[in-house]
Amino acid sequence: SYLNILGNNNVSGISSINEGVITNSYFKGIIYATGNYVSGISSISNNGLIENVYNTGNITTSGMYASGLVARLINTTLQTSFNDGIIEAFSYASGLVAINEGIIINSYNAQTIKANSYASGISVINNGEINQTYHYGQILANSYVAGLLIENNGLITNSYYDKESVVHKEESKALVNTAIYNTADNNLVKA
Q1: Fewer beta carbons below 10 Å: N end or C end of the chain?
Q2: What string of pLDDT tens digits covers the 191 residues of the chain?
């Protein structure tokens, strides 16, 4: 869809709350929100399937939990999808999914992520599974910043970020040094 959207909480380009299947869909507009759970495809997806979707729209909120595809993924598989829109939030901003409690596979982010704190390329909090993901783009935050994840309580494999693209020149911002915040990179999760 090509839309410009203004809203508060649970704002997205395709579906606010998804409990089904979203396939072969995209969002190319602009979203401005003042609340939480803001994304290009679905704000919250529970017990669903999302595949072959993409977002190229810029998403901005003064709240928390903003992402290119799904703000909160619960018992849902997100696969073969990408974000190429700038994501900006007060905190908890990521390229694909802000809070992952599902499965993310074969997907990537290729755009800038901005937040005061908690900014990452793929997901801020992972309580699920992530496999075959990639981040390429700047990540700008004053604290809690990482190439892929901030907090990992699940499984992540075969996921990478481009270290050269996330390095930036703003001295007031924290530098990205690892794929997962405060965790050493390894051969399956690294720059």
Answers
A1: N
A2: 667 888 999 999 999 999 999 999 999 999 999 999 999 999 999 999 999 999 999 999 999 999 999 999 999 999 999 999 999 999 999 999 999 999 999 999 999 999 999 999 999 999 999 999 999 999 988 888 899 999 999 999 999 998 877 755 455 556 677 888 878 888 888 87
The candidate with the shortest Cα–Cα distance to 69, out of 90, 34, 91, 99, is: 99
Which residues, 6+ apart, have CB-to-CB distance to 35 below 8 Å?
A: 7, 8, 9, 10, 11, 61, 63
Structure tokens at 50: 């999302």
Global pTM? 0.93
Q: Find out whether 137 and 169 touch, Cβ atoms under 8 Å.
A: no
| Helix (H), strand (E) at residue 164 | helix 163-166
Phi, psi (deg, nearest 5) at residue 165: -75, -25
